[in-house]
Amino acid sequence: MPNPIELGPLPRGVLSADDLPGSVAITHDYLNQRGGAERVVLAMAQTWPDAPIYASLYRPQSTFPEFARHRIETTILDRLPVDAGFRGLFPLYPLAFRALGTLDQDLVISSSSGWSHCVRTRADALHVVYCHTPPRWLYSHEQLVTPIARLPLGPARSVMRAWDRRAAWRANLYVANSEEVAGRIRREYGICAPVVYPPVDVDRFAPRDRGERLLVVSRLQPYKRVDVIVDAATRAGIGLDVVGSGPSLPDLMRRAGPTVQFHGPLADPDVTKLMEGCRAFCLPGREDFGMTPVEANAAGKPVIAFGAGGSLESQQEGVTAVFFHRHETEDVLEAIGRCDRLDTSADVIAAHARRFSPEVFRDRLIEVIQSRLREAR
Question: Model-level pTM greater than 0.85?
Answer without folding.
Answer: yes
